[in-house]
What does this fold into?
Amino acid sequence: MTLCFLVGLAWALVFSPADYQQGDTVRIMYVHVPAAWMALFVYLNLALAGASLLIWRHPLAGVAAEACAPIGACFTFLALATGSLWGKPMWGTWWVWDARLTSVLILFFLYLGYMALTNAFEDQERGRRAGAVLALVGVINLPIIKFSVDWWNTLHQPASISRIGTPAIHSSMLWPLLIMALAFTFFFIVVLIQRMRGELVAARLRALGRLSVEGR
Amino acid sequence: MGTPNDMATGDESLPARQLEARELGCLRGGWPIFAGVTFALSAGEALVLVGTNGSGKSSLLRLLAGYLPVAAGELLWRGVPLSKDPDLHRSRTRYLGHLDAIKAALTPREDLSFWAQLHAQPDRRVEAALAAFSLQELADRPGRMLSAGQRRRLALARLTVSPAPLWLLDEPTVGLDTASQKALVAAIARHRAAGGMLIMATHQALPGVTDAAQRLDMNRYRPLPPDPEALLL
Amino acid sequence: MKSWLALIGRDLRLAWRQRGDLFMAVSFFLLVAALFPFALGPEPNLLLRIGPGVVWVAALLALLLSLERLFALEQEDGSLDLLLLSPLPAEAIVLAKAASHWLTTGLPLVLAAPIVALIYNLPFDGYGVLLLSLLLGTASLSLFGATGAALCLGARRGGVLLPLLVLPLAVPVLIFGTAAVDAMLAGLAARPHLLLLSALLLLALPIAAFAGAAGLRQAAE
It folds into this structure.
């Protein structure tokens, strides 16, 4: 993971060419685009973990889903923040109601809703299962939200502002981008495993505490 | 209420109707509640759950009603696991918990006729149920005017509105005076005479019911604490 | 089907007995809509421009008011346990409750919407599309709302939590609803937007039924 980050960052920040239109600000893209990808990818993971919790009632799936959420929310926030940083020199404002940024913003709210719901119950297991249902509803709605926001955007801004990440991208930029995406994925996996491990230890501690109470 | 035909809710003949629990275990919010509960009931039989507070009587009733999942063991209706067809199990179970489910704005008659409609029962059952628990004079008073004992009577009357072979009652006698207790005993007797089964949690002896029933002491099914060493691994 | 109607009938009767509550949502709706001119100034062209959006946002917020109690009341008094043992499957219970929420909250809002349209000087020929879009949209919102309410059962601070869950899901309804009215006012066809709203409603039905039923079953455990 560290290697990927080092190579990716070095390539992205130092060696890759500056964009002839955007100059060095294009380098924000190497963080922004993978973060936005990860935001979506982690939500899919969350929904999948939720589905397996509901179908097979495996407690580990619930732990995984709950551990996914803050990581995904951080990626989403990172995507929004870098998008906004990138927007300042490009568009002259910190925030533009661009279709993609708006969709990511709603995704961020979906993460917040999931985390609020899972934490709102005294019984942790119940919270996780309620959250799993919500994540599934969210994942079904995500394409609809995306579609509606695009629709809304074309209605209100007929002359589309140049968007982040055009499909025609030169390989000198594509490679560092892909390496960064890989680094982000590794980062997600490592943090996820750490968080799950931590949660399992905490659960074990709680069980021991319970025993010491019940033992009397 | 009470000819055997009335009890038919998908089940055919009387004698074979049977509920069987084998080594049932229950978890709530990750906490073990009980383990190893085993019993069998045939048509017309009753089972009384006794045990100290927190021994899992209410949890067992909720598990039998299908609200709680079976964490361990088997629960069989005529040899078929209940989880096979939860819809069918709903139609043969009536549950009365600690709450009376009474709406402040509805009168007892409206309340009972709603539940009768919901269960697709004719309206004459409502009058019979009101009469069985001497609620006729209160029948047109809004729910908020009822006393605790009267509310309990209404909740019990609701059981008789739509017949089902299995009654699960959680402390049904709380707040009842002697006359109402007698009405409950009579309702249970009719239910059992028609082949119905009863499982009831109670702290109180109810003459005519508790003395002619199996007893299950829930204190005997405390879950064993797991080995602390195993957790540390 | 008869039992399903019986449940809706009971809810309507309860709502009618406490009909003061019905007017609260409508009053809130009108009040929120009346706040915007105070904040933005009474300039007629501006009000005409923001009118459709204001109607929609105000309706969305007013619908949320009564959502929390939709299942919470049933759970508190023990009715939910009994409903779950009735011949109605949990999915049908969710749909029935969503229907009664819509009839007692959504429909009055739709009926009150012309008042808001009037104070925003919307042209009369736009009323038809406005009401139709609100009819379709509020129904979807009731369905998503019922889902959220079922999931929040037994949660701490359900009142704050519920909007957080439901509002992101309401974005498409808001977009297509306002777009329909805007298109009408701009002299364009409102039909595609109305069709999209109907599609959303059809999609919301199964989602609400299954997700809401899962929520109810979890709440009964």
In short: The first strand of chain B starts at residue 18 and ends at 28. Residues 1-15 of chain B have pLDDT under 50 and may be disordered. DSSP finds seven helices and nine strands in chain B. The two ends of chain B are 59 Å apart (CA to CA).
